[in-house]
# Entry
Amino acid sequence: MNTYGNQRISLAHGSGGKLTHDLIKDCFLARFKNPILSELTDSAILNLKGINLAFTTDSYVIRPLFFPGGDIGKLAVYGTVNDLAVVGAKPLYISCGYLIEEGFNSVSLDEITQSIGDAARNAGVLVVTGDTKVVEHGKGDGIFINTSGIGVCYYQLLQDIEVGDKVLINGPIGDHEIAIISARGELGLDVKIESDCAPLADLISHVLTASGKIKFMRDPTRGGLATTLNEIVTSKDLGILIEEKAIPIREEVRAVCSLLGFDPLYLANEGKVVIIVGCEDASLVVDTMCAHSLGRDAQVIGEVVESPKGRVCLRTEIGGTRIVDMPVGTLLPRIC
Amino acid sequence: MKYIDEFYDRKICVNLAEEIAKKSLGTELTFMEVCGTHTMSIFRNGIKDLLPENISVLSGPGCPVCVTPNRTIDKAIAITRLNEVCVCSFGDMMRVPGSSSTLAQERGRGADVRVVYSATDAVGIAERNPDKKVVFLGIGFETTTPTVASSIKDSALKGLKNYFVLPAAKLIPPAIKAILDSGETKIDGFLLPGHVSVIIGRKPYEFIAEDYGIPCAIAGFEPTDILYAILRLVEQINNGSPAVENCYRRSVKEDGNKLAKDMMNEVFEVCDSEWRGLGVIPSSGLKIEKKYRAFDALHNFKMDVEETKENPDCLCGDVLRGVASPLDCALFGGVCTPENPAGPCMVSSEGTCAAYYKYADVRR
# Structure
């Protein structure tokens, strides 16, 4: 039996957690088997006549389509260019595919498209190809967008993560998901939180110029910081220990989490990057990020440790320790 | 947040833990908490790391999802298979295995099953979908039940004809009594649930101290709350004067919340109820009063409920009584994991097995 479930596909298979990973491993990797895909990086790295190109794709499914701090269009551009940026590439071109449900409001379509145009200009990429499909009413949820992106790699991540390396993040976690949840209006929450949706390539290029000791980067989107950290240590001979006190979280986000029983470590972000850097460059990288508008609250949040191997642990505020596991299932409505 | 930060102060927590160690004098003491939020807080904050080795904290039947028996889940599943019905449930119930299916699996097969955050949300769905019969799966303890009662009263006032509750609410004090009467577990004190106590107050627990001579402390949910309540239990033991002490005064009043209690009493009446692991406990559940029968799913739907089947290897029942630890269960971590749960204690975020699996380094 495959391990991605013995039944039908559930929302949990798309939540970015353990079931998503099982599905990728047992269904997709098994069939598409090739060394480039097997790397499972945010973007595939393709060597074409000596030039390393980064190539990625992502589909955007979000409700509501417009939310504080962004909309599906902006998300579709920044999500894809960020996947290029975190492998050390300069994003250059993107594609844009629309799946539109019959009856969808053309004013909203205009607004979303305008937003894609603005976001692409802001991120320094061109939308160079696209596709439109319209499905029957009732066969789609308003609009879905797929974008693919190509960039040129200018930095080779070191990949040799070792004990003592520091774990950094460029600012407070959870803003995006809490903004989406409150924008849905289902919880009767009146929280003034905007999505952190932002293009990270410029911030990352500053970091990569400042330090040659960057070993790993990833944007902690679906599944949040907890998932990204687990992905780093899974099947590795080392672990990660993070300090609860050091993790930047806005008071409003913490309050909503406390009210609803969410763990902020699992909330999605759209403008954050987790960086693993050699210990000696940690403060240099924090300073570099703090000097950039998207890294004002950058922090060292933890370090790579010898044991427990393959695990992420958290030292709690009161001094206890607990495991931070890969998320399983999805209790939250799907958000991205 | 200023208000929260103080309850997480490392120095205060360490001081409380040292005081517990000093005053318990190495005596082996076992305390039971009866609240899923306590279970979660103890694990999430690593409170066990601070406690001396002679103090153990057990989780009792404090997670409403976990104590709901298969029969109730099977009824909810049977309702999802009826025509023009929408079943609304708290998210935690979605993946709990019934005899042969789960609500999530039924949704995957096309049933209209929705996750809601409160009974009020389900009333809203009923108002917006007059052509559907909306059934709220009304699990929960005294904490949640007043809101379910309010949803029924509200629907009556609005004249809603398509909102129903599948009654499955339970009461905490009779469950504590059942555990004590079974005599299966040595319990030196109870950490009583803060949220339930906000509604029912302090008095309904007095029998524990008076009739059974066991110390009790009503506890809040932040680390300092829990450690302080444990310290008070140790001090009660030392003084030889068991009592029900309210250590959560900022929220719990002596007589609880009168409005909520009145609402509950108006809409529900006490009945015997089946608990997973504990069997039928007299006067431990709530059914809907005759006056509100129009909203009672049990009286308004003809359900084809399958024969109840239990997984014979699942130890959830024993875990809920504090007789077994998740680690004693042959299924734990192998056959039974959060992504493929065999029993409810592995599904609910407040379940003991899920907490062990998620937060403690005990996987097989």
Q: What stands out?
A: The CA atoms of residues 116 and 192 of chain A lie 24 Å apart. Chain A has nine helices and 14 strands. Confidence is low (pLDDT under 50) at residues 331-336 of chain A. The first strand of chain A starts at residue 44 and ends at 48.
